[in-house]
C-alpha cells in the first residue's frame, strides 16, 4: 500500500497540484453516518489560505461526493470525494524539473520517478492534496462526534511565540473554541503575536515553522496493540505523511528524557465507579493502548521550504552548481493551515482503530 | 495485522515475559544472505542487562533458528528464531492482575483483554520481547551491510547528561565504535557521567530516561512514498512500538519550529558526478523519500516505569484507592539497552523499504 | 482492505450503478508506462452491451484520467480513472429495497448495510463497476505487453455450446484474434451457435451462463509464494470478485480428480538452453509459483440472475412471502461481456505480482 | 505478506519438511477462548498418515503452545504452536536439488530462490506444513463452535468413486459424523470402494486425486465484501494455498454454466420470522456476502505428484534430458488427509471474516 492508509477504515489519496482533479476514497466507514456538507465546507474553509501569511493561490475547493453517500448518509461502500483544481497558473514549470528547490521533494521525486513525475507545483507532493484529507476527515469527525469523541488542535508555537496549554478542566470548551477557527489558538493575544512574526518573515522573503498540539477526548480505553500497531505507531505513521512534519511526540514527549520515573508515571485513582490517572504525562496511552484519558500529542511543522530568498541548487541537466530564485505563490507559514489537516488525519486514524476493535457497525 | 510489521519483508513477534519461549518470524528476506550466529549473539549481548543500572534478571538468550536458514544462508522462506525464557521467578504475580502499576500497560491490558492476558512480568508487553527483535534485526543488518548500508545509535542524553553529536566527516568511524558497545556513547567521559546519574537515581528507588540518536549511511536515494508511507511514517511506526518511546523526530526535528526556511532548507551541491545537500536539517528525507544523505533521527525513552518508590493505584477488584510497592527485579534505566533495539528495528524497516522498491532479490 | 486489491500495485474501486460517477484508483504502477487512450477505449467497448443478448442500457463510458498520467505516460503516482453514469433511469427503485431479487445481492446488502445501501440498480454490487476495472486493466495490459506478457480470454462454453481449446502451437495468434472481439471465441461457428441459444433463452424471459478460459504467455518463472500467496490464490481472489463467478480452476482443474499422477504430472524437457514442460496439466503453476509455461485457467459465470420470469421472494417490510416480476433492462447473458473483465483483472494481478517480485521499476 | 494470511485474525506459517521445527502464529484471536489440547490432538491425528494409502513417514506431531494461551484460554496475544520434525530420513537429498520432480515445486523453487532453498523433502513446500495449519484451525474451530458455527468436509470423489451429498435436512448430523474420521465419507460403502481404488493405484506405483466438499452451518448473514474481499475470494485465496488444490467452486459451481437463471436463482421464503432460500445453488453467498444459508464449496486435489513410476526430467546442472526414479516415502493419495486441512483453513478464514465484521471481542 502506498497512497492508502488504514486497515478497517482506509483512505486512498490521489491527484496532483496542477492536475484536473484531486480526491480521496474512504472505505470501510460504517453505513448510516449522517453527512453534513456544510460541516465539510467549514473544515475545508479552515484550510484555505488567508491573508498575508498565506499563498495568493485561491481555490474554491468545490468538492463533490460522487459515491458512497445516499440520502445524506453513508452507505457503507466507498465514498469518493473529488475536488477540481481551478486556479492553476499556466506558466512554465519546466524549470522546476531541472532546478530542484531546496527542502522540497523535487529532487527525491526525480530519484524515484525518473523524470516522469508531474513536476508542476510539486505535483503529487503538493500541500494541495491535504484538501481531500480535510474533507475525508470531516466525515470521520462527524462519525466520532456521534460517539462523543472530539478532536482539537491549536498552534502551540509559531515563529517562537507560544500559546497557552489546553485547560485540562475545560478541554471540551477549548476544543469547541478551536473548531471553527482559521488560526486556531487558545489565547488570541498570543495568536496576534504569532501573526506579526509570520508577516515579518514574509516581508523578508523567508518563512517560519511551529508546533501544533492536539487533544482528543472521549476515546474508549483498550484500543491499540502492544506490537506493532500501538496508538502512537498508527497516529505517527499518518501524521508524518502530512508535508513538513518532522517530529511527533505524545504526552510530555521529549521532556520525559529529563524526568524521573516517580514524576513521569501517571498514578491511578478512582471514584469507585471509573478509573482515571491523576496526571497525563503519557498522553492517554500506556503500552500502546488507550487508557481512557485524553489523547495529547504535538508535532513540529518545519518552516515552509518555498522562500523568495535566492538559494543554491544544482542543474540536473548540466550537473552544475547554480542559483535558484523561486517565483510564484507561496505560504510564508503553513502551521495554521496544517491544524485542520491534523484534526482530519487524527479522525481518520481513530475511525480505523475503532472499527478494527469494535467492528464495522460500531460507528453507525 | 497486529504483531506483524512490514509489507515486503515482514516481522511477526510473539511470546510473553514468563511464557515458555519468545520469538520472531522474518518473512520475505531475500535468499542467500549469509547468517553469522556470532553476530546475532553479539547484538543480543548488547541488549542484556549489565551491572547496577540494570535488572538482576539474567537470561542467556540462547536463540535457535528453527527454519529459513540452510547451510548458513537464508533460504528466502520464513525464518523462525526462538529464545527460551529460563530465569522466570516462580513468585506470585497475581497481585499485578489486581493492582495496576502506574506507567505500565497493566491497566490497559485489562481493558483490552478482559483479564485473560498473561499478567506475569508484563506478559506480552514486556521489554523481554525486544530480544527477538534484536536477533531479527541482526540478520537484517547483515543483509544491509552487504549493500554498504550501516546503522549506528548512541545515547544522546541520559538523566540530563549529553553525548557529543555524530561527526559528519567520520560517521562510519563513529558507527563502528558503537557497534559492539553495551553503553553506546561517542564520548566516554559523558557516558561515565550518565552512569553516575543513573546509579544515583537507582539508589533512590527511582529511574531515569533519555534520548537515543540514530544515523544510517549508504541508503540509496528514491526510497519511500509521498503518502502515506513516507520513510518517516514507516520508521516512526516501528520505533513507537518499542516500549517507553514517546517521541520521534527526524533531522533537526522539533528545533525546526524556531528556524527560518532560509536556514532549515538543505541546499543542493554537486561535484559534477553526484548530488548532495550542504546541510542535513531534514535528516536525509525530503517529501518522505530518501535523498541519499545520511538518515538522522532521535527518539525519547521515558524513565522506566518500574520504580521502588511507593505509588498510588487502584485495586481493580474492590475499586478502591490504594498504595503499591513494586518488588522484584527492575531496570533503573533502559536507555542504553534500547539502543541495539533501535538499531534492529531500523534495519528491519530498511530491509522492508528496499525490498518493496527494488524487488525481493535485491538484498541477495 | 475492502474495495482495494493488490499489495505492490493496488486497485481501489468505487461507485454505484446510479451514482454520479464510478471509478478506480491504480497505485504503485511504475512510472513511464505509455498510456494509449484508444486502447482503453477499445477494451471498454468490448465490455459494452451489444444487440439482443445484452441489456438495452447504453453507456458511452466516456472515461477521464484525472491524475497519475502526464504527457501520456504514467507518473508513478496514483492514477484515477472516472466514468460518469449518464443513462440512469429515473424510475422508482424503492421496490428493490423491499423485494430482494433472487440470485442478487439485494438481501445480503440489507443484512450488511442495514438499509443504508444505494439499492438503485444493484448499487455498488452492479456489474456496471466492471467498467472501471476494464479501464484499469487496459493500462496494466499495456505495461505487460511491453514486457512480452499477453493475455487472452475466450468463451469456452455458453448455454451448453463449446468453443475449441487454445492452440498450444499458436497461442499468440489465438490471443491476437481475441483481443478486439466483442464476442470472443476461437471458432466463429461455435460462437454463432452460442448466440442462438442465448437469444432463445432471452426470448423465454430466462438467462444463460457459461465458462471463460484464459491464457497468459510470457510470464517469467519464479513468481508467486508457496503460502499463502500462491499465484492461484491471488488470481482466484481477484477473479471471484467479478460478479457471477462461482468457480475457478487452473490447468486441468476439476478433471484432475479422475487422473492418475503419471498422467497429471508435467514432465520437464530441455533444448539445452531453457526448460519447459511437455504437457501443461498444471496451468503453468507448480507449488504456487510460475514455471514459465503459459498460465491457463477457467471460471464459470452463472446465468444472469435478472430474469423476466416471475419468482418467489419475501417482502422485507411485512415479512410475507410474495411474487416478484423484475422489470427494467437486463442481460440475458453476461458471459461474453465478462471476458474483457477477466482479461483486465488478470492483468492487474500480474502487475502486482511482478512489481512485488522485481521491484517498482520493473514494468517501466 | 507472503506466509501470513488474514487481516483481523492472521496466521503466519513457517518451517521446512526436514528442519528442526515447523509452526504457526495465530494473531488477533479474541481473548478468553477455551483451548482444549485433546481436540487439537484429535485433529492432528486425523491428518496423520494411515495404512497402505499413505506415506510410511510417521510423525508424532507432539505440538507445544509456547505463547498466547494462559490458564487454558487464549490471552488475545499471538499464539505460537510448534511441532518438531522427528522422523527425518538422513539420506541424501542433494539429487532433488538437481533433478526436479515433475508436478512438484522443485523447479519453481529453484527459479525463485536461486538454489538457496532447503530442498530436503520439499522444504517449505512440503505437505508437512499442513500440520501446524490443522493445529491452528483446531483452535479456530473451538472458537466458532462456541458461536454455533460448525464445519464439515467429506471426500466427494476419490479415484472416480463418489460419496453421497450432504443431507440438507440433517447437516449437523453429517458434520458430527465427519468430525472424528480419518477417512471422512458420508457413505462408508463408497469409502471402502475409494480405498480399494487408491490401493490399486499405489500397487502400480501411481497416485490418485479427488474432490473434497465442505459445508459450514451457523454463519451469520451479512459477512463479506462486494469487491474485492468476497467470501469466495477470501476462502479460495486460502484454499488454493493448500498443496495440490487446482480448483475451487461454490454452490453448484461449474455446473451453473449449463443452467438457466430460473433454475440457478435461489428464491427467498419466510416463516414470518426469518428469511431463507428454498434452494442453495449459490452456496450461501450472494454478491460475495453470506446470506445465512449453509456455505457449500468443493475443491479438487490433484493426484499426488510423487509416484514411483519413472518420469522424464532435466538435470539442472548439465541441462540435459534424463530420467527420474523417485525413491523414499510417499502418499499414493492425500485426498483424505487434506480434509482436516480444509476444515482448518476454512475455520481460520471464518474467524478472520467475523472478527473484521463484528470486532475483536466477538468470538470471546
SSE topology sketch:
Four copies of one chain form a homotetramer.
Chain A: E1 4-5, E2 10-14, E3 21-27, H1 37-47, E4 64-67, E5 69-70, E6 73-74, E7 79-84, H2 94-98, H3 106-113, H4 130-146, E8 150-158, E9 161-162, H5 171-178, H6 188-203, E10 210-217, H7 231-239, E11 245-250, H8 261-264, E12 268-270, E13 275-277, E14 285-286, E15 289-290, E16 295-301, E17 311-315, E18 320-324, H9 335-358
Antiparallel strand pairs in A: 1-2, 2-3, 3-7, 4-7, 5-6, 8-9, 8-10, 10-16, 11-16, 12-13, 14-15, 17-18
Helix pairs in contact in A: 1-4, 1-9, 4-9, 7-9
Structure at a glance:
Chain A is built from nine helices and 18 strands.
Features:
364 residues, homotetramer, alpha+beta, Chorismate synthase, AroC fold, 5-stranded antiparallel beta sheet
Oligomeric state of the chains present here:
homotetramer
Q: At the third CATH level, what is the topology name of chain A?
A: Chorismate synthase, AroC fold
Q: How many β-strand stretches of chain A?
A: 18
How far is it from the N-terminal to the C-terminal residue of chain A, by CA?
A: 27 Å
Mind telling me which CATH architecture of chain A this is? 4-Layer Sandwich
CATH C-level class of chain A? Alpha Beta
Return the structural class of chain A: alpha+beta
Order of helices and strands of chain A: EEEHEEEEHHHEEHHEHEHEEEEEEEH
How are the strands of the largest sheet of chain A arranged?
Answer: 1-2-3-7-4
Radius of gyration of chain A: 21 Å
Q: Count of helical segments of chain A?
A: 9
Provide the β-strand percentage band of chain A.
15-25%
Of all chain pairs, the largest interface belongs to:
A-B, 108 and 107 residues
Q: What is the approximate shape of chain A? A: globular
Amino acid at each position: 500500500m502506498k497512497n492508502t492508509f488504514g486497515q478497517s477504515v482506509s483512505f486512498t489519496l490521489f491527484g496532483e497540484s496542477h492536475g484536473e482533479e484531486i480526491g480521496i476514497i474512504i472505505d470501510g466507514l460504517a453505513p448510516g453516518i449522517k453527512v453534513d456538507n456544510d460541516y465539510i465546507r467549514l473544515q475545508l474553509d479552515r484550510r484555505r489560505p488567508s491573508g498575508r501569511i498565506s499563498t495568493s493561490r485561491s481555490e474554491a475547493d468545490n468538492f463533490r461526493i460522487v459515491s458512497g453517500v445516499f440520502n445524506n448518509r453513508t452507505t457503507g461502500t466507498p465514498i469518493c470525494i473529488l475536488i477540481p483544481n481551478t486556479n492553476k497558473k499556466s506558466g512554465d514549470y519546466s524549470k522546476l524539473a531541472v532546478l530542484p528547490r531546496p527542502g522540497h521533494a523535487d529532487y527525491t521525486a526525480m530519484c524515484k520517478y525518473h523524470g516522469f513525475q508531474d513536476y508542476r507545483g510539486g505535483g503529487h507532493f503538493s500541500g494541495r492534496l491535504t484538501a481531500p484529507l480535510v474533507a475525508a476527515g470531516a466525515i470521520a469527525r462527524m462519525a466520532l462526534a456521534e460517539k462523543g469523541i472530539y478532536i482539537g488542535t491549536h498552534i502551540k508555537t509559531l515563529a517562537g511565540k507560544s500559546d497557552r496549554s489546553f485547560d485540562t478542566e475545560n478541554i471540551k470548551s477549548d476544543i469547541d473554541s478551536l473548531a471553527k477557527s482559521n488560526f486556531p489558538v487558545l489565547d488570541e493575544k498570543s495568536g496576534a503575536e504569532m501573526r506579526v512574526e509570520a508577516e515579518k518573515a514574509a516581508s523578508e522573503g523567508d518563512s517560519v515553522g511551529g508546533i501544533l498540539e492536539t487533544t482528543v477526548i472521549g476515546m474508549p480505553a483498550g484500543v491499540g496493540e502492544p506490537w506493532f500497531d500501538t496508538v502512537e505507531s498508527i497516529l505517527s505513521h499518518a501524521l508524518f505523511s502530512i508535508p513538513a512534519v518532522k517530529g511527533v511526540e505524545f504526552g510530555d514527549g521529549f521532556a520525559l528524557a529529563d524526568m524521573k520515573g516517580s514524576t513521569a508515571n501517571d498514578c491511578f485513582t478512582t471514584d469507585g465507579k471509573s478509573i482515571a490517572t491523576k496526571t497525563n504525562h503519557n498522553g492517554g496511552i500506556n503500552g500502546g493502548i488507550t487508557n481512557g484519558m485524553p489523547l495529547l500529542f504535538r508535532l513540529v511543522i518545519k518552516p515552509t521550504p518555498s522562500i523568495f530568498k535566492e538559494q543554491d541548487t544544482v542543474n540536473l541537466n548540466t550537473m552544475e552548481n547554480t542559483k535558484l530564485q523561486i517565483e510564484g505563490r507561496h505560504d510564508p507559514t503553513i502551521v495554521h493551515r496544517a491544524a485542520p489537516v491534523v484534526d482530519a488525519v487524527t479522525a481518520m486514524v481513530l475511525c480505523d482503530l475503532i472499527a478494527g476493535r469494535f467492528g464495522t457497525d460500531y460507528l453507525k
